[in-house]
C-alpha cells in the first residue's frame, strides 16, 4: 500500500509556472486532505558575488542590509503572489487557504535546501514547476531535475502550461 500524503512541500521560484504549479499543490491538498508548506529558496551568493559586494560596499552593516533586503524582497513577492492567487480563486475554494501551514523564504542552495526542508518537515510529496529558461532547461530545469533525481519521496514537476490553459482554473469540478 502506498503511503498517505499528509504534508506537501510546495517549492516556488516565483515564476509564472510556479504559480501554475501552486494550483496543483492546492488541488492535491484538496483531494488528499494534506497540509502545504511553501518554500522559496533565495540562492546564496557565489564567492565572486560576495567579493564584488565587498568591493563596492565597504561598510559591513550596509552589506548585511543588502543581503537582508534580498530576502525581504523575495518574501514580499511571495506574499503578493499568494494574495493574488487567493483573490482570483473561486469563492468556494477559499477554505483551502487553511491548508497552508507554513511559508518560508530561506537563503541556500536550492536543491540541497529543498531536500533538507522536505526531510525536516516530514513531507510526503514535493510539488514544483519546471523552469522557464534555456532550451534544455525549458523541459525541466536544473533544480527540478536534481530534486527529482535526489528526492526520496514522490516529487511532482508541473510542466509549463500551454498558453491557452495557463489561466484556466485547475480546481474546477468536471
Description:
This protein has about 170 residues and is α/β, with parallel strands linked by helices. It contains 5 helices and 5 strands. Helices cover about 45% and strands about 20% of the residues. It is globular. The model is unreliable at about 135-140 (pLDDT under 50). This is UspA domain-containing protein.
Question: How is the secondary structure organized here?
Answer:
Blueprint: E1 7-12, H1 16-32, E2 35-43, H2 47-56, H3 60-88, E3 100-108, H4 110-121, E4 125-129, H5 142-150, E5 155-158
Parallel strand pairs: 1-2, 1-4, 2-3, 4-5
Helix pairs in contact: 4-5
Protein name: UspA domain-containing protein
Pfam family, one: Usp
InterPro entries: Rossmann-like_a/b/a_fold, Universal_stress_UspA, UspA
The total number of structural domains is 1
Radius of gyration from the CA trace? 17 Å
Shape: globular
CATH topology (level 3) name:
Rossmann fold
* N/C terminus separation: 28 Å
Q: Please indicate the percent range of residues in DSSP E strands (runs of 2 or more).
A: 15-25%
- Got a strand count? 5
Q: Helix- and strand-based class? A: alpha/beta
CATH architecture: 3-Layer(aba) Sandwich
**Mean of pLDDT:** 85
Strand order of the largest sheet: 3-2-1-4-5
Q: Multimeric state of these chains?
A: single chain
* Contiguous helical run count: 5
- In CATH's first tier, which class applies? Alpha Beta
Give the helix level as a range of percent.
40-55%
Order of helices and strands: EHEHHEHEHE
Organism: Oceanisphaera marina
Protein name: UspA domain-containing protein
Family: Belongs to the universal stress protein A family.
InterPro entries: Rossmann-like_a/b/a_fold, Universal_stress_UspA, UspA
Amino acid at each position: 500500500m502506498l503511503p498517505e500524503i499528509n504534508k506537501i512541500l510546495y517549492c516556488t521560484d516565483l515564476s509564472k509556472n510556479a504559480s501554475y504549479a501552486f494550483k496543483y499543490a492546492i488541488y492535491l491538498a484538496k483531494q488528499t486532505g494534506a497540509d502545504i508548506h511553501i518554500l522559496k529558496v533565495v540562492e546564496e551568493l557565489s564567492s565572486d558575488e560576495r567579493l564584488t559586494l565587498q568591493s563596492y560596499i565597504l561598510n559591513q552593516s550596509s552589506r548585511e542590509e543588502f543581503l537582508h533586503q534580498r530576502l525581504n524582497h523575495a518574501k514580499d513577492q511571495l506574499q503578493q503572489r499568494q494574495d493574488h492567487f487567493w483573490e482570483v480563486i473561486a469563492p468556494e475554494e477559499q477554505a483551502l487557504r487553511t491548508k497552508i501551514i507554513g511559508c518560508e523564504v530561506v537563503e541556500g542552495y536550492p536543491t540541497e535546501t529543498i531536500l533538507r526542508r522536505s526531510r525536516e518537515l516530514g513531507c510526503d510529496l514535493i510539488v514544483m514547476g519546471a523552469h522557464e529558461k534555456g532550451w534544455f532547461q525549458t523541459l525541466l530545469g536544473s533544480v527540478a531535475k536534481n530534486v527529482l533525481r535526489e528526492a526520496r519521496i514522490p516529487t511532482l514537476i508541473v510542466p509549463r502550461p500551454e498558453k491557452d490553459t495557463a489561466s484556466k482554473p485547475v480546481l474546477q469540478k468536471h
